[in-house]
């Protein structure tokens, strides 16, 4: 079976503390996906690594399929315009690797339910 | 009992489609919080309303307590620096209203679990 890598792709921020839940998220996915393949973080800007670096690293580890999951709330310009261009670059660098892209996490019903429950716990 | 309003505070984006999950989220919270008080959206930039407008609207509806929930993944500069300044402005406009601020939704364990499960479903 082909080794399947996952990239959790976030916006990035100036404040390093912003990254902390992304590291926790990567740990959770890594723990659950340990049999299928490696899990990496990547950022659009302000933080490292960028997506081409993360994808190259997964390919170097033997991944033949890479799924990029945009850790964004909505499908805005970053996910609809910027990300496809970067994925195109990655695909050109690794033509034999299948690079797939998921819908932004915030569009998922179960994610929104969990966010709604959190909001209600604050009242 | 004091009427308690909730503001779901997001970053905002140029692409209006980015807003769609925020509207769905507001609908979910509104449905569940219908007995406690009104639920509003507000944005830091690029989208309307801004936080002072949303808070003034909740106060006009009779809210004596307003909880602002940052719909951000991490506690970066927007949540640690920009948001407190805007909340200060809101507080100055409505000195008799208690304005509270929650931690960013992405810091919550259950939210991260739901995001992790979504990521794993993409593989």
UniProtKB/TrEMBL annotation, chains A, B:
Keywords: Lyase, Metal-binding
Pfam families: CbiX
Lyase as UniProt keyword: yes
Keyword RNA-binding found: no
GO MF, one annotated term: lyase activity
Coiled-coil segments on the chain, per record: none
Top-level taxonomic group: Bacteria
InterPro entries: CbiX-like, Sirohydro_Cobaltochel/CbiX
CDD domains (alphabetical): CbiX_SirB_N (cd03416)
PANTHER family named among the record's database cross-references: SIROHYDROCHLORIN FERROCHELATASE, CHLOROPLASTIC
Descriptive protein name: Sirohydrochlorin cobaltochelatase
Organism: Paraburkholderia dioscoreae
């Amino acid at each position: 079976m082909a080794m399947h890598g996952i990239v959790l792709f976030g916006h990035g921020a100036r404040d390093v503390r912003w990254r902390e839940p992304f590291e926790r998220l990567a740990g959770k996915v890594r723990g659950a996906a340990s049999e299928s393949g490696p899990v990496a973080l990547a950022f659009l800007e302000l933080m490292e690594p960028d997506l081409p670096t993360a994808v190259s690293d997964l390919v170097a580890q033997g991944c033949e399929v890479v799924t990029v999951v945009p850790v964004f709330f909505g499908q805005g310009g970053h996910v609809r315009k910027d990300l496809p261009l970067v994925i195109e670059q990655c695909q050109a660098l690794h033509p034999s690797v299948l690079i797939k892209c998921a819908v932004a996490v915030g569009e998922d019903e179960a994610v929104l339910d969990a966010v709604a429950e959190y909001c209600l716990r604050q009242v």
